[in-house]
Amino acid sequence: MNSIKENITNEIIINKSRFITTLIKIDNIDEIKNKLETMKKTYKDATHYCYAYIINGQEKCSDNGEPSGTAGLPILNVLKQNNLTNILCIVIRYFGGIKLGAGGLIRAYSTSASTALNKAIITTLINGYNLTIEFPYENLKQINYLLKDINIKKNYHTLITYNFNITENKFKQIEKKLTKLSYIKTKKIITLAS
User: Domain of 32: which CATH number?
Assistant: First the structure.
């Protein structure tokens, strides 16, 4: 699966209507409501706030007052066609006075999402873990060698605590040595950008 590296905003005008598309990288479903509220405050006098998202196998779309199936579904289809996940696409419309009809709306929302996506940097997502380990000071040198290319949050007390993200493949390579030298306190499954 793929996602975007960073958030993107793009605007196009179709028959005097403004379509502002924002692609937002999301890590959990709880973020969506806040992102939508932020967009509604930012573009408070817009006519429609249509959206679609895909995250962890869940998907949803909304036409937000446009005729059924003319906005949310076309946006969702663009995300699916590009094999994307962990993404929220919001298309904000300012009505320009010219009715587009069902076919025109479908094309407008698809084009808006596609155009924004063409400006995004796409990254491949890989499975990984967020680990928290504890170990005694005498194992510091060996642990640091095992984790030499990894960004680590470090905490020094009676025992040393490290928190870091690691790909599934890298973890499998070092798992035996790591568990021999440390105690794994927490292990959460996460998705990492390659």
Answer: 3.30.230.30
Q: Say if residue 116 is in the same domain as residue 132.
A: no
Same domain membership, residue 16 and residue 42:
yes
- Number of helices (H), then strands (E), belonging to the chain: the values are 5, 10
CA dihedral 54, 57, 58, 62 (to 10 degrees): 40
Q: Do 89 and 174 belong together in one domain? A: no
CB-CB contact of 17 with 108 (8 Å): yes
Question: What was the pLDDT predicted at 27?
Answer: 84
- Domain extent, residue 170, equals 126-193
Which sign, positive or negative, has the C-alpha torsion 100, 104, 110, 112?
Answer: negative
Residue 193: what residue type? A
Query: Of 120, 139, 171, which marks where a domain is finished?
Result: 120
H or E element at residue 128:
strand 122-135
pLDDT at position 46: 96
pTM over 0.90: no
Q: What's the pLDDT at 189?
A: 83
pLDDT given for residue 31 in this prediction: 92
Q: Find out whether 141 and 165 touch, Cβ atoms under 8 Å.
A: no
What is the total count of domains within the chain?
2
Tokens of 2: 């793929």
- Contact in structure between 12 and 94 (CB atoms under 8 Å): no
